[in-house]
Specification:
single chain, 314 residues, alpha/beta, Rossmann fold, 2 domains, 4-stranded antiparallel beta sheet, 10 helices, binds adenosine-5'-triphosphate, ATP-binding, AAA+_ATPase, ATP hydrolysis activity, nucleotide-binding, ABC transporter ATP-binding protein
């Protein structure tokens, strides 16, 4: 294995007859942010739990900061920060007490007051955890993950339930972590979050890796750009354009998705001219990570078995 902050090789997680993770390999290079994407039930949290040492893999292996997450648990814990999707704290303690407790586990913590201020928790510092709103609990969980100045942070859907301001603060904090050389493995359902934060992206589908790369590689490798044309409604493309699959997406709005070069764009516009159409707008755009994600996970349904690899061509 190389010297990544996280190294997973062929990790398998089973719950009885259900294979949640069907042999996943990934590397989080040191000082980089890796976003793990995938539909509900794709296996992201299960994989994270193996990396965090909360669950033993049923197959494969995982090294975190060069250590075994279960055998070396005590040595690893002070070096990593973990933000769980929910729970993990005593519900009767106040936000301030919980944060100070976690700070006391570290030899060189960030000042809790600083994190309280930064994450807008000052108004609820004396509120018991169980009385915090969902977004406040999320912010406190993030503060807990960061207070020990970890070398590596696991963030499971860090901004789920947060308001816009807290989400932006969280993004800034993650960017600051990376600037400080901290490695981050996060899961998210927010494609704009992944596009903004991630150096590397792994897309999971039914327990296996469907695609991996930087956001730029994924959008470019998919080779899919979009040509949008506005013209008269109701034009029906003839056979000469069949290979480009021009469709009328709404009355008078036409689109072609595919690996479009200049010749293909010219071909489409020439057809509009031949059809006697009045073209009033032409727009091209590169597909976003969200477009790529949707095309990779299209047709994903609950209950699909792990190991059914998506048909991905890169
Ligand atoms: N403790 C458990 N016992 C049985 N099945 C489980 C358990 N935890 C997870 N699963 C199942 O394993 C699969 C993967 O779940 P997991 O929570 O890892 O997915 P996820 O990608 O994190 O989903 P989400 O985006 O909804 O959080 C799902 O089918 C889920 O129902």
């Amino acid at each position: 294995m190389s010297d990544g902050a996280v190294e997973c090789r062929d990790v398998v997680v089973r719950y009885g007859d259900t294979t949640a993770v069907g042999g996943v390999s990934l590397t989080v290079p040191r000082g980089r942010v890796l976003a793990l994407l995938g539909h509900n039930g794709a296996g992201k949290t299960s994989l994270l739990q193996v990396c965090e040492g909360f669950r033993r893999a049923d197959g494969g292996c995982c090294r975190v900061l060069g250590l075994d997450p279960i055998a070396d648990h005590d040595a690893l814990m002070p070096r990593i920060g973990i933000m769980l999707q929910s729970g993990g704290v005593y519900p009767w303690a106040t936000a301030g007490e919980i944060l100070r407790l976690f700070a006391s586990f570290s030899a060189n913590p960030i000042a809790p007051d600083m994190l309280v201020e930064r994450l807008g928790l000052h108004k609820v510092v004396r509120t018991r955890f169980r009385r915090l709103s969902g977004g406040e609990q999320q912010r406190l969980s993030l503060a807990i993950a960061l207070v020990g100045r970890p070398e590596l942070v696991f963030l499971d859907e860090p901004t789920a339930g947060m308001d816009t301001e807290a989400r932006h603060t969280t993004w800034e904090l993650i960017e600051e972590l990376r600037a400080d050389g901290v490695s981050v493995l996060l899961t998210t359902h927010l494609l704009d979050e992944a596009e903004r934060l991630a150096d590397d992206v792994v897309i999971m589908r039914s327990g296996v890796v469907a695609a991996t790369g930087t956001p730029g590689e994924l959008t470019a490798a998919a080779g899919i750009d979009l040509l949008e044309v506005r013209a008269n409604a109701g034009l029906v493309p003839d056979a000469s354009l069949a290979h480009l699959k021009l469709t009328e997406t709404s009355p008078g709005e036409y689109a072609v998705a595919g690996a479009l070069d200049t010749a293909a764009i010219a071909e489409v516009l020439a057809w509009f001219a031949r059809a006697g159409a009045q073209v009033t707008a032409v727009n091209t755009r590169r597909r976003t990570l969200e477009d790529v994600y949707l095309s990779l996970t299209a047709g994903e349904k609950a209950g699909a078995k792990a190991g059914e690899k998506a048909k991905v061509t890169r």
